[in-house]
């Protein structure tokens, strides 16, 4: 059976499974659409949360970014997992105790203000739309290679699948679909990693293989990787080469962004009790750890295999002839995500760091005119099994896993957006007397519109999937997280302060990102770069932590200068902080 047929079988079977689950678990009420009827078991919810969380950024892009940068990009791992500790300890149980359906509803009731609720809706939509762009980018990358279609066509196919099972099933359908998607994506990530770890180190556990001995050379794997890439002018893989200040800010931004992302938070509204919310966060961290402990090994081994493909006899020997390139390169060239340009006319693939001043003399002496191979970082995990010559069924499994990761998070984000529009904007402000049936219809229509917008924006993403997602985390960190923290732990912050804080936090962050990036959702202006940061060397992806600080300072200062919240609101805050069980939802 050829590879294309295998890909179709694996991807088609998983899509049929997702759609079947959506039909079985379709939502029949707003409670089921928004919160799955609040009957999800903590272990089930933990697995669904892990799938909701481990997006295209985690599955497709993160290991690729680590592979091409090394230690400096380990902040993705630290920030994204550390955020779950904040969620479990500081937010999840208290928000579940409050008993609402959405994050803006909590903010609106806690700060006794429709304006606060509407500002929260705007912040949620901005962060979620930015996040979902990264997922649609991942969908396009995966489809373009494995179904042999153009990236744009892949985007449209993925959008259609999400539309069907998310619009039909709501949170109830999405929850059980995400459980299936987690099983698919974790198998798809770990199985090839085990194969490759065995090939390179003889160790079946990739995290241990990463620190084990490289079988072919007899030296530690990471030492071997450092050696080969430095011989090509790249920075050492295990060294620290960027600003420590930026790395700390970026990690912090990812942590508090994790704790402030609405599509993650609403998962904790689906469990029966407050204690279940804590257990859900704990189980989610366990399920996430299975992938995140494997990702560094995947990145390192993929980078080593890539270099070995181009320089079979080592970087100091000749590179392979372009005409003799392996099939995996030919396959990915078709997608446009890998390209070769013979700059010096020798017919060989010269791959090296042509921006390294230290390596310039060596490159010039060798007759090289510049690096001739361009590899999109988002393809490395998907191409990894092909580079390592793994069996066809493993390649097909990775295709299904990459799509599962992207689609699961996209569905969660779109659900958060539709809930904000139908429940918070329409029922909460514009049409408070809307019937439950009308609200359910509005939720489905708003999700369909959100899918269309996300697909269009996904055609012109501002960067690699993980970079785009990092911007979304910064926006959530600067706007939603401070409002939730102050809403739970401060009785003194009032409605005026909360609104001022959210507007200041997200406003400053958006301005910084746009000035820094030069990207305004305009086609053909993709210019993601961290060159020439505007303020103290802070990159746009790390600015969310600064935006959060501004939010806190403005909210507290304005609240101190204005009237205290009403007595009943202060008593409400006190009651939230005592999470002793939870009754029925009091949504209205």
Please give a structural write-up:
The protein is mainly α and 588 residues long. The protein has a domain at 3-301 and 387-472: Sodium/glucose cotransporter (Up-down Bundle). Helix content is 69%, strand content 1%. It is built from 23 helices and two strands. Mean pLDDT is 83; it is low at 518-529 and 581-588.
User: Which sequence of SSEs, written as H and E, runs from N to C?
Assistant: HHHHHHHHHHHHHHHEHEHHHHHHH
**Shape descriptor:** globular
Reading off the top of the CATH hierarchy, the class of the domain at 3-301 and 387-472 is best stated as: Mainly Alpha
What is the number of helices? Answer: 23
Strand content: under 5%
Q: Which percent bin holds the helix content?
A: 55-70%
- Strand sequence of the main sheet, in spatial order? 1-2
Average of per-residue pLDDT values: 83
Whole-number radius of gyration?
Answer: 24 Å
Low-pLDDT sequence parts: 518-529, 581-588
Task: Give the termini distance in whole angstroms.
Answer: 56 Å
Structural class: mainly alpha
The CATH topology annotation of the domain at 3-301 and 387-472 reads as Sodium/glucose cotransporter
CATH arch. level architecture of the domain at 3-301 and 387-472 = Up-down Bundle
Q: Total number of β-strand segments?
A: 2
Major β-sheet annotation: 2 strands, antiparallel
CATH superfamily of the domain at 3-301 and 387-472: Sodium/glucose cotransporter
């Amino acid at each position: 059976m050829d590879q294309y047929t295998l890909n179709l079988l694996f991807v088609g079977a998983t899509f049929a499974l997702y759609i079947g689950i959506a039909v079985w678990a379709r939502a029949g009420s707003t409670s089921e659409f928004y919160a799955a009827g609040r009957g999800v078991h903590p272990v089930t919810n933990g697995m669904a949360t892990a799938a909701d969380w481990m997006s295209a950024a985690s599955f497709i892009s993160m290991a690729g970014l680590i592979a091409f940068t090394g230690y400096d990009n380990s902040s993705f791992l630290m920030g994204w997992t550390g955020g779950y500790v904040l969620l479990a300890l500081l937010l999840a149980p208290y928000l579940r105790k409050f008993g609402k359906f959405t994050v803006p509803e909590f903010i609106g009731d806690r700060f006794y203000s429709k304006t606060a609720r509407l500002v929260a809706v705007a912040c949620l939509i901005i962060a979620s739309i930015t996040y979902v762009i990264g997922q649609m980018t991942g969908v396009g990358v995966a489809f373009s290679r494995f179904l042999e279609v153009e990236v744009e066509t892949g985007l449209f196919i993925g959008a259609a699948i999400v539309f069907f099972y998310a619009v039909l099933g709501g949170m109830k359908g999405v929850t059980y679909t995400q459980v299936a998607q987690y099983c698919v994506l974790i198998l798809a990530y770990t199985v090839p990693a085990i194969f490759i770890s065995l090939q390179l180190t003889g160790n079946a556990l990739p995290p241990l293989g990463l620190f084990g001995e490289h079988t072919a050379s007899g030296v530690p794997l990471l030492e071997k990787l450092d050696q080969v890439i430095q011989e090509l002018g790249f920075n050492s893989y295990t060294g620290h080469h960027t600003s420590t200040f930026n790395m700390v800010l970026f990690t912090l931004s990812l942590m508090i962004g994790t704790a402030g992302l609405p599509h993650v938070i609403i998962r904790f509204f689906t469990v029966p009790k407050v204690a279940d919310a804590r257990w859900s966060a704990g189980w989610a961290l366990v399920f996430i750890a299975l992938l995140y402990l494997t990702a560094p090994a995947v990145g390192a081994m993929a980078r080593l295999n890539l270099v070995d493909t181009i320089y079979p006899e080592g970087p100091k020997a000749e590179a392979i002839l372009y005409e003799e390139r392996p099939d995996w390169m030919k396959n990915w060239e078709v997608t446009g995500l890998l390209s070769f340009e013979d700059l010096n006319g020798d017919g060989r693939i010269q791959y090296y760091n042509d921006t390294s001043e230290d390596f310039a003399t060596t490159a010039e002496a060798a007759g090289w005119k510049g690096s001739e191979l361009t590899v999109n970082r988002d393809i490395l995990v998907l191409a990894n099994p092909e580079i390592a010559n793994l069996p066809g069924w493993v390649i097909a499994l990775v295709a299904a896993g990459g799509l599962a990761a992207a689609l699961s998070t996209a569905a969660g984000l779109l659900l958060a957006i539709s809930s904000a529009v139908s429940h918070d904007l329409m029922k909460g402000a514009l049409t408070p007397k809307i019937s439950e049936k009308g609200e359910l219809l509005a939720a489905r229509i708003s999700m369909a519109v959100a899918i269309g917008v996300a697909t269009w924006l996904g055609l012109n993403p501002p960067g690699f999937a993980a970079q785009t997602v990092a911007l979304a985390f910064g926006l959530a960190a600067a706007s939603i997280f401070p409002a939730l923290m102050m809403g739970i732990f401060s009785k003194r912050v009032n409605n005026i302060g909360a609104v001022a804080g959210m507007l200041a936090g997200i406003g400053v962050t958006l301005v910084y990102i746009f000035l820094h990036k030069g990207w305004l959702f305009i086609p053909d202006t993709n210019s993601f770069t961290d060159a020439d940061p505007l303020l103290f060397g802070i990159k746009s992806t790390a600015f969310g932590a600064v935006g959060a600080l501004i939010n806190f300072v403005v909210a507290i200062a304005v609240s101190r200068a204005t009237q205290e919240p009403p007595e009943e609101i202060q008593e409400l805050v006190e009651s939230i902080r005592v999470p002793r069980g939870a009754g029925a939802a009091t949504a209205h």
